[in-house]
Design brief:
- It comes from Nonomuraea cavernae.
- There is one protein chain.
- The protein is mainly α.
- It has seven helices and no strands.
- The protein is 55% helix and 0% strand.
- About 3% of the residues have low confidence.
Length: 174
């Protein structure tokens, strides 16, 4: 049986060969990015999946009200419920969805996307406490872990713009 040795890319060089796992992580990155971008688009335009047209952001609706008002009975519901519908919270949330989603899909700025995306996911997790199906784990925590893993693995270099010279030279774009 032959043994295959993979030498990972260095910070200064481009990858010359890719493992199948590199493509799995790239597809994971793009898919997770699309989840964020879709949430932004649906909340902005109300395409009727999670947000009806009459509640779209462009129609004067608040993208944070539905989720945050629904946390009223939860452990931190009073705090998160008080944030619902505030203009600054809506803007931060929507900029976050757009920025995180774009960074993940393009494979640029994964470190920033991992940090801000994980913060957003942990806050959404905290708003849902106590969880009904598990003592502490849910999809928000899994998404946060995956985003950190994608950034640490340099997943933007496969099927993304992470190999561009400017990205390799500029730490905050990695």
């Amino acid at each position: 049986m032959a043994t295959m040795v993979h030498t990972p890319a260095t910070e200064t060089g481009a990858i010359t060969s890719r493992r199948p796992a590199d493509y799995v992580w790239a597809i994971t990155r793009i898919s997770l990015g699309w989840i964020f971008l879709w949430a932004f688009l649906d909340k902005t335009f109300g395409w009727g999946f999670a947000t009806p047209a009459e509640r779209a952001w462009v129609a004067g609706g608040s993208p944070t009200t539905g989720f945050l008002k629904g946390t009223g009975e939860n452990a931190l519901g009073g705090f998160f419920g008080s944030l619902a519908g505030q203009v600054w919270v809506d803007w931060l949330f929507m900029i976050g969805l757009l920025g995180i989603g774009t960074a993940l899909v393009l494979g640029v700025g994964l470190r920033i996307a991992a940090a801000t995306g994980s913060l957003l996911m942990v806050m959404m997790w905290a708003a849902a406490l106590p969880l009904t199906t598990n003592p502490f784990m849910d999809d928000h925590i899994i998404y946060a872990i995956v985003m950190v893993g994608l950034a640490l693995a340099g997943a933007g270099t496969t099927l993304g713009l992470g190999n561009l010279p400017i990205v390799r030279r500029t730490a905050w774009l990695k």
